[in-house]
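Pipeline run #58 for the internal structure catalog. This entry was flagged by the ingest filter as a single-chain record with no existing model, so it goes straight to prediction. Upstream metadata was stripped on purpose; only the residue string is passed forward. Reviewer on rotation: M.T. Logging verbosity set to normal.
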Amino acid sequence: MLRYRILVGILVALAPRLALGALATRTDLPVTAPVPGGVAIVCVGRVPGNAPLVTFEGQRVLVARVDDAWQAVVGLPLALRPGTHELAVTRDDKTERTIPFRVGRRDYDKQYVTLANRRQVDPEPDDLRRIAREQDVLARAFSTYSDFESDSLAFDLPAAGRVSGGFGSRRFFNNEPRQPHSGLDIAAPEGTPINAPAAGRVLETGDFFFNGLSVVLDHGQGVITMYNHLSRIDVLKGTSVARGERIGLVGRTGRVTGPHLHWSVSLNNARVDPALFLSSEVRMREAPGLVSTALGGVPGRSAPPHCEN
């Protein structure tokens, strides 16, 4: 089933326990960056036994088996406050507990963008009604948790080009503050192919006021990716795509200053830094200058934490 939404209170009764493949390797997981806009990896139990059901702020969390432990791979929203937070963990025997983890502070840079089209900064009433409808569509897409397994959380770069906009920057359009940048911008000539960074299913396609022509992919277990400002969409809603399959072409539709791809990665309905999902090999080969803004330019930890549970 491509998508469904169920209340956290009945997840235990209805949802099967799945992990990222039969056994994930350490390189399958994103780089750990336990800050707003980053990813925390938290041990939630040991093998044997099925994966526990884990939620964070009411959203179901992906759980992967690494060696002899179950690791929760938690997306941290940009608006999350630093400090101690808790995962809710339910085992097969229906016993429940909470596991605390720490979230650090991260101050992202500011970015100032000048737009000639005033409606893209201050939309008109008809535009606002359209935007509200589109926000509902995207909210449903990002909250999707599908019980199929991703092939890996080590993503390929979806398009060749220069990184022109980092994740998390506090944005000002014509000097007016707007929402932080929730993805990674890749500047490339119009018509550059955009390929799926991992296998998935096409969750949504459409033409959106701010995002332009867009594709949303479901990679399973709360991992959703989005591709904006396309010049052409090459996939249909509801179809499956393989890793490396073309899903569209780079364009300049929606709110843009030039042709580029805006690429978002969402984990348990939290938009997180896509650079954390690129392996070191992919970064060296395809984007040697790319650094994770969630990490602040410092090396991240790719190995999951030691499990005491």
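catalog note: Confidence is low (pLDDT under 50) at residues 1-19.
catalog note: The radius of gyration is 19 Å.
status: ready for reviewer M.T.
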